[in-house]
């Protein structure tokens, strides 16, 4: 089981997350081009909670695909193939088409790190993360309820995961 990543991308040491991996554009990527497609086990909310949510090692490699469903690895051996290594940024360049397909939100230049705003797929009250993206307008703290923020709904529009987009 493996997530799909475009041949135009590569995993390297992140510039956003100093201690971790990031996904980068190896060549130019056009607006709305597919960057990746998430693979994983379908995990129900109760099970995801029990496993420690987004703060567990497998949780970090998990994508929320509906209010009560998540897609991700179940053990540490599966993490590498399933993790897309996309970090959060308050000034993202990739978003969603549907729930599992990740696309460019604008033309992306060779060498840019690919990042999404976690608000576009997370609806999970317990989620809370300090943001170190350093971008203009950084929210500093990212929560699992930010998707309700009208400004962000307007800013990202169709690039929200469709299960969230359908709520506003
Ligand atoms: Zn930020």
Using brief descriptors, characterize the structure shown.
168 residues, Beta-clip-like, four-stranded antiparallel beta sheet, 4 helices, binds zinc ion
Q: TL;DR of this structure?
A:
The chain has 168 residues and is of the alpha+beta class.
Tell me what the structure shows.
One of its GO terms (biological process) is methylation. It is found in: Chromosome. InterPro entries: H3K9_Histone-Lys_N-MTase, SET_dom, SET_dom_sf. The protein has 168 residues and is an alpha+beta fold. 14% of the residues lie in helices and 29% in strands. The protein has one domain: SET domain (Beta-clip-like). The protein contains 4 helices and 13 strands. The strands form 4 sheets. The chain has a 4-stranded antiparallel β-sheet, with no helix packed on it. Strands 2-3-11-8 form a 4-stranded mixed β-sheet, with no helix packed on it. Strand 9 (94-97) and strand 10 (101-104) form a beta hairpin. The model has no long low-confidence stretch (mean pLDDT 96). Bound molecules: zinc ion. The site of zinc ion has 6 residues, from loops.
């Amino acid at each position: 089981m493996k997530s799909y990543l475009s041949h135009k991308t590569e995993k390297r040491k992140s510039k956003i997350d100093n201690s971790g991996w990031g996904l980068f554009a190896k060549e130019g990527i056009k607006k709305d081009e597919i960057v990746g497609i998430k693979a994983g086990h379908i995990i129900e909310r109760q099970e995801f909670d029990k496993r420690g949510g987004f703060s567990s090692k497998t949780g970090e490699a998990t994508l929320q695909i509906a209010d009560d469903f998540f897609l991700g690895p179940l053990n540490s051996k599966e993490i590498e193939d399933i993790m897309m290594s996309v970090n959060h940024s308050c000034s993202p360049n990739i978003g969603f088409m549907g729930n599992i397909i990740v696309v460019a939100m604008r033309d992306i230049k060779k060498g840019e790190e690919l990042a999404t705003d976690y608000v576009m797929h997370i609806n999970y009250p317990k989620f809370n993360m300090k943001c170190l993206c350093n971008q203009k307008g950084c929210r500093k703290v990212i929560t699992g309820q930010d998707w309700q923020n009208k400004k962000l709904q307007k800013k990202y529009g169709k690039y929200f995961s469709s299960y969230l987009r359908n709520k506003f």
